[in-house]
Amino acid sequence: MTGGRPGGGGVAGPAAAGGAPLLAIRDLAIDFGTPEEPQPAVRGIDLTVTQGSTLGIVGESGSGKSMSMLSVVSLLPDTARVSGSVQLAGREVLGLGPRELRKIRGSQVGMIFQDPMTSLNPVFTVGDQVGEAIRTHEPGMSRRKARARAIELLADVTIPRPAERARSYPFELSGGMRQRVMIAIAIANNPALLIADEPTTALDVTIQAQILELLKRLVDERNVGLIVISHDLGVVAGVVDRVAVMYGGRIVEDAPVDELFAAPRHPYTRALLGCTPRLDRPNASLTPIPGTPPVLSALHGGCSFRARCGYRQPRCEDEDPALQPAGRSQAACLFADEIGALPLSTAAPAATEEAAS
Amino acid sequence: MSSPATSEASAPPPGGAEPLLSVRDLVKEFPVRHSGGPIRGRDVVHAVSGVSFDLYAGEVLSLVGESGCGKSTTGRCILRLVEPTSGEVTFRGEDLLHKRPGELRALRRHLQIVFQDPYSSLHPRRRVRDIIAEPMIVQGMSNRAALAEVPRLMETVHLDPARAGRYPHEFSGGQRQRIGIARALSLSPEILVLDEPVSALDVSVQAGILGLLEDLQQRLQIAYLFISHNLSVVRHLADRVAVMYLGKIVEIGPALETFADPGHPYTQALLSAAPIPDPVVERGRERIVLGGEVPSAIEPPSGCRFRTRCWKAAEICATEEPALIDRGNGHPVACHFA
Amino acid sequence: MTALDLTLREEVARPERRRAGRAAWLTVPVILGLIVFGGWLVIALTITLWSPYDPLATTGLPLLPPSAEHLLGTDALGRDVLARTLYGVRASLPLCFAVIAGGVLIGSLFGAVAGFFGGWVDAVLMRITDVVLAFPAILLAMVMTAALGPGLFHAGIAMVLVWWPIYARLLRAQILSVKEQAHVEAAVAAGAGRWRQLRIHILPLAITPTLVNATMDLGQVVLLAAGLSFIGLGATPPTPEWGLMINDGTIHFYQWWVALGPGLAILSLVLAFNFIGDGVRDLLDVRTPGRSA
């Protein structure tokens, strides 16, 4: 894995020496309130990403997916109280001082944010911004060299006429272009891990296709680890090897992508698949998920999904299911095996609570 | 530029009835303001450049396209929320564009709109019952009569009428969208323009709203002009579809046919780019990845506007704009090589 | 949208908000401000009934330091400073409310018409506003008093003329942004006429910054009025008015108590208005839900 690869910049940074995974998250919890009035956003998750693999984190608003990834680069708001462990290439990241964090951000982990319009500084040219990213981690490099390298990177992300484009300001570029600039900044220092938070949500579908192809190519060429956070199951299906589904601040299912889509073992995953319209199955009926996502601070005991679950049983009121493994998948449902065995077209039996939405 | 072929652009559903709404050569141009500097004369954004179609009673016609294609502007022009630069919009034979305010108001009850953003489309300081009753009051109903209709309307959209006295911020996004739908239905319109009605909602909530819209459409036989960029949603709901690119309709036809066998390269690219939640299918797909970016609407390409990104482009595409006519696909396509 | 918005975004049906204890906007400063303002209001309304001394009469030897009889001493004419201080609020309070009311009404009218109708109406009205805005307050006050004669009333008129342009701009800016919102479009789609759009759908939302600003400006008017009187353009002697009293105080610098009363009075009232203004802002923000994400 650490052999040089032709083209595509250098080999990804501090390689997974001694087999440590690129990213290992254990029991991560993030809370925004006070000890008296907790406002949890993430309630204990475990994740592992190895070099060259791609992980998709899927969830809706309020599931905690973005928060959990922000903790990897410690970009959470000051009011956040974080507990648990986040290790990058074997090294604990939580609790590091600002200087150490600055060394990690950009060089070990590259982040691509959702909205390129607000994530780029409007008063600097894109060439300057990519150059700045480079010189942050190589302070000795001359401006000229950094600019040359920036142009190389812009070409790498398939921006046409990169030398000219480097002199443009963000507002002169389209959404797709800006996102490519973001990606260029993210890969500028050859990080071993890329985290893309809803990278294509703000983009048109044809541009989305371009950006996703770009990300896939970069992963292949540079052998980096990639995490894609999305609410769109379709985006995730086409890009990643493995999917983690988040609900109510927890991971409720974690499985290889084929298995997750073919035989989901958690009722929420099933329900999500059942309510997503598919271009190739226009006549499939969509079953909405009744109710609304939970208010995390109000969750006590039992399964967090039970109020909206069509397979709810009395046991679900009291037992909060841990992730039940089965081969390479795991699902946080007491009946995961049975759920997984059901054909996808079967509808959920139980009538659920007041469909308030 | 009205072509005889525009009658083809609106192949009527069986029955051959008269269209409820007729749009002919709709044009909307926005002047561009250059910040600082003198007003540099004639720069305009060609948001809509000659759009024609018919909408029949009880059908769902969808306008699809990506951002900047002019679909939202078209919807707004029809309701005169934005004044078109030129063109014709006829509702049951009445010319909507040249009505005076008084006459226009009376006609407005037949055409209503549901907006994209459930957060800004409801007045934040008014109670839900007042929001829903507003159109009826504006149209001359007494306050009391209008408020009496509210519980029924709320039930139609599956909201609890007991909550009519609450404020919008006490509801979730999906519920707010239902309030918006109830408001739009209050005048019993025959045409409903839906401008990306589910795009701002979570997927689990979308399905509920789509189900509601489907149900309402069938029960009340309202004609929908469904504007969206999400092909999967459109395919699920639409009878006919019009694909727009840079201010023009490039293909229009029955949804089933158009999606199954698209004639225009842009439609093909759109369909190819739409993600499908199935990794096996995704791996097996042949992806058409369009090069380049969407050209500027201020200086659209000559001839066929799609030619700068089209793999079939040839010389004729730059010199001659392809007309929207049936070229053997069974429905109109604006491409020389369809 | 920041990631924080994505997570904590309002996608949940909120249960009824029950506030435990007092409302969020009633912070300590706000309560303090309300108490102080309330106190001054009561004084203004009732002082004639219980004032220990007549503010205009000589009730002691001149320039006596504070004592048990005259808690803040006496001024150069032997008048009780405390009584004059307390009476002073009867000049300042009605004045500041009148000026703000006038300024807000005139300014809002300009701003609403300009913002809503746009076009050349907007251009003309805004140019007029710009011209008036360019006048320094003091200069205008001087011109007014020269033309109309001295006195607090004329100073008040001058202040209204100086104040309204700010409110014109404020309301215009708000209207420009509110009128683009979707719920206004919805009203138009239903057939609402312009007046209805403005009255029901635009103004109630656009007026918020004006109200906050107006509350804070009450204090500014008190200051300006005192300032004008201080330089001789406002109240005339023997009216007990704080600015005038401070002027006296500067003449008799070593008799520090003469200026102390009015000085503290101005300070307390202006602070009170500022605090209340903060509270008003929080109050109106709390009831206005999050804007479109």
Q: In words, what does this structure look like?
A:
The complex is a heterotrimer of chains A (357), B (338) and C (293). Chain A has 357 residues and is an alpha/beta fold. Chain A is 31% helix and 19% strand. In chain A, helix 4 packs parallel to helix 7 and helix 5 packs across helix 7. Chain A is globular, with a radius of gyration of 21 Å. Chain B is of the alpha/beta class and 338 residues long. Chain B has one domain: 3-Layer(aba) Sandwich (Rossmann fold). Chain B is built from 11 helices and 12 strands. In chain B, the strands form 3 sheets. Chain B has a 6-stranded mixed sheet, sandwiched between helices. Helices cover 70% and strands 0% of the residues of chain C. The longest helix of chain C is centred in the middle third of the chain and has 37 residues. Chain C is elongated, with a radius of gyration of 24 Å.
Describe the structure using short key phrases.
heterotrimer, B: 338 residues, alpha/beta, Rossmann fold, 6-stranded mixed beta sheet, 4-stranded antiparallel beta sheet, 11 helices, 12 strands, 20% strand, disordered N terminus, C: 293 residues, mainly alpha, disordered C terminus
Helical proportion of chain A, percent range: 25-40%
Reading the helices and strands of chain A in chain order gives: EEEHEEHEHHHHHEHEHEEHHHEEH
CATH class of chain B: Alpha Beta
Strand content of chain A: 15-25%
Oligomeric form: heterotrimer
Number of strands of chain A: 12
Helix content of chain B: 25-40%
Q: Would you give the CATH topology of chain B?
A: Rossmann fold
Number of helices of chain B: 11
Number of structural domains of chain B: 1
Secondary structure elements and their pairing?
The complex is a heterotrimer of chains A (357), B (338) and C (293).
Chain A: E1 23-31, E2 40-49, E3 54-58, H1 65-72, E4 81-88, E5 91-92, H2 98-104, E6 109-112, H3 116-119, H4 126-137, H5 143-156, H6 162-165, H7 175-187, E7 193-197, H8 205-222, E8 225-230, H9 233-237, E9 242-247, E10 250-256, H10 257-262, H11 267-275, H12 315-318, E11 324-326, E12 329-331, H13 336-341
Parallel strand pairs in A: 3-8, 3-9, 6-7, 7-8
Antiparallel strand pairs in A: 1-2, 1-4, 4-5, 9-10, 10-12, 11-12
Helix pairs in contact in A: 4-5, 4-7, 5-7, 7-8
Chain B: E1 21-31, E2 44-55, E3 60-64, H1 71-78, E4 86-91, E5 94-95, H2 101-108, E6 111-114, H3 128-138, H4 143-156, H5 173-185, E7 191-195, H6 203-220, E8 223-228, H7 231-237, E9 240-245, E10 248-254, H8 255-260, H9 265-273, H10 279-284, H11 315-319, E11 325-326, E12 332-333
Parallel strand pairs in B: 3-8, 3-9, 6-7, 7-8
Antiparallel strand pairs in B: 1-2, 1-4, 4-5, 9-10, 11-12
Helix pairs in contact in B: 3-4, 3-5, 4-5, 5-6
Chain C: H1 3-8, H2 28-50, H3 81-117, H4 119-133, H5 137-148, H6 152-178, H7 182-190, H8 194-206, H9 208-230, H10 242-251, H11 257-287
Helix pairs in contact in C: 2-3, 2-11, 3-4, 3-6, 3-9, 3-11, 4-6, 5-6, 6-8, 6-9, 7-8, 9-10, 9-11, 10-11
